[in-house]
Design brief:
single chain; 473 residues; alpha/beta; Alpha-D-Glucose-1,6-Bisphosphate, Chain A, domain 3; TATA-Binding Protein; 3 domains; 6-stranded mixed sheet; globular
Length: 473
């Protein structure tokens, strides 16, 4: 019997291979059973991204939820994940279902659930939902009612969370100052659900915004995936140079991650971005409180937090760990290596749109370009360099590779002495001048190897090369 396995953030699979309408209905059935166990009665918001047939898969999920007499609010168009998450709070709902595969390649689609507080569901909730998903032998028996019948019974209505979201973020950020600053900004939503949001928020002032790759295109042409990292942001870099812009901002397929391109069209890696967001909250917004980061995120936050004696909590990868920890300790920020950032007062959820606004606010308040901001950061804590390697792993290799990672115990990596080791998520080696993590992805068939060093750029490449040798890849 085929079982659906939730990963780092819900379930993702290749469309028509494992990701089918029947499988989506099975996920919806599992979530409906979970909601019934919780005594939920306020309703669920159903949203979707711009991928192939996303609205049709979302409708299939809604028809199953409605069969359980769960009130459904359905977004009228593709909507970013953080906007859907905020919609839960606007209506006081029991949660949300979002049909999205986020930053995965175009052939993939996914099924995310969000609880009533608008953040990623913690592992225990995902585990319970997964346990309630029926085996494929039961799929023909899953109850559902038609879209038309659900509307007739008053169980389904279209509702747009966007206006309320825009008002909310406008109350958190000094938009008037950004609009008046005269910045030149290029935005790249990567054909995803966040198209138009930043441009709309910047209307009415001296700041100019150009948008590229804003139309819906489910195959995400000329990019490996709608993931805002260097290899996918060549068009954004060229557009920044062509318009002589001050910054380029890219959001991923469902709008919950941010990638930044500096005024020269160069990618500003996500580790430096997280350090700059931490610097922004501490030095510009003068906020104080704990900091939460994933094990693969930058350690630059440690010297930034040290003068204020602020605690730092490290978690496994994914906001199913980061979000709950952020709520538990009332952190000012939670961040991960992949460009996901959450901020106190907004959502315990990554948000690429809000992160973009925070970065523009940092530029305006400090009156600096991205390059100058990095220089200012490094003047405080010294230069740091980062890179990541992704290696494809076949299903047959995964178990053997996991065993190998659990047993390797080198004394040096890339010429640096190993001074610590942990297994928070994958295996991490703390080095005398940095760190390296080897981790099997929870959403894709990949081994990810991450490293950050203090010192010289060439050292990070040496660490990564040696880590590949240790892993046998």
């Amino acid at each position: 019997m085929r079982r659906i396995q939730f990963g780092t953030d819900g379930w993702r699979a290749i469309i028509a291979q494992d990701y089918t309408f029947d499988a989506v209905r099975a996920c919806a059935e599992g979530f409906a059973r979970y909601l019934e166990r919780q005594g939920a009665s306020k309703g669920i918001l159903v949203g979707y991204d711009t991928r192939f047939a996303a609205e049709d898969f979302a409708q299939a999920a809604a028809e199953v939820l409605a069969a359980h007499r769960i009130p459904i609010f359905f977004t009228p168009r593709a909507t970013p994940t953080p906007v859907v998450a905020h919609g839960i709070l606007q209506l006081g709902l029991d949660g949300a279902v979002i049909i999205t595969a986020s930053h995965n390649p175009w052939r993939w689609q996914g099924f995310k659930v969000r609880p009533s507080y608008g953040g990623s569901a913690p592992p225990e909730v995902l585990d319970e939902v997964q346990s309630l998903i029926p085996d494929d032998t039961e799929w023909p028996k899953i109850p559902r009612i038609s879209w038309e019948e659900a509307k007739r019974l008053g169980l389904l209505e279209l509702w747009d969370p966007t206006p309320g979201y825009l008002r909310h973020v406008g109350n958190l950020i000094d938009l008037e100052a950004i609009r008046a600053a005269g910045l030149k900004v290029v935005v790249d939503p990567m054909h995803g659900a966040a198209s138009g949001y930043i441009r709309q928020l910047m209307e009415g002032g001296a700041t100019r915004v150009w948008q590229i790759r804003g139309g819906r295109n489910p195959i995400f042409p000329r990019m490996a995936a709608p993931e805002p990292i260097a290899r996918n942001l060549g068009p954004l870099g060229r557009a920044v140079r062509a318009h002589q812009a001050h910054v380029g901002l890219a959001t991923d397929g469902d709008g919950d991650r941010l990638g930044i391109v500096d005024e020269e069209g160069r990618f500003l890696d996500n580790q430096r971005a997280l350090a700059l967001f931490t610097y922004y909250l501490l030095e510009v917004r003068e906020m104080r409180g704990p900091i939460v980061k994933s094990v693969t995120a930058t350690r630059m936050v440690f010297p930034l937090a040290e003068p204020y004696s602020l605690p730092i909590y490290e978690t496994g990868v994914g906001f199913k760990f980061l979000g709950p920890k952020m709520r538990q300790v009332d952190a000012i920020i939670a961040g991960e290596e992949s460009g996901g950032y959450a901020f106190r007062g907004h959502l315990p959820e990554r948000d690429g749109i809000f992160s973009a606004l925070c970065f523009l606010d940092l530029m305006v308040k400090r009156k600096k370009t991205p390059t100058q901001l990095v220089d200012e950061l490094f003047s405080r804590i010294g230069p740091h360099y980062y890179d990541r390697i992704d290696v494809e792993v076949s299903p047959g290799e995964r178990e053997a590779l996991a065993h190998r990672l659990a047993t390797i115990s080198p004394s040096r990596i890339g010429g640096m002495a190993v001074v610590g080791r942990d297994a928070i998520d994958g295996v991490r080696f703390l080095l005398e001048g940095g760190w390296v993590v080897l981790r099997l992805s929870g959403t894709e068939p990949l081994l990810r190897i991450y490293s950050e060093v203090r010192g010289e750029p060439h050292q990070v490449k040496e660490v990564l090369a040696d880590a590949c040798r240790l892993a046998g890849v």
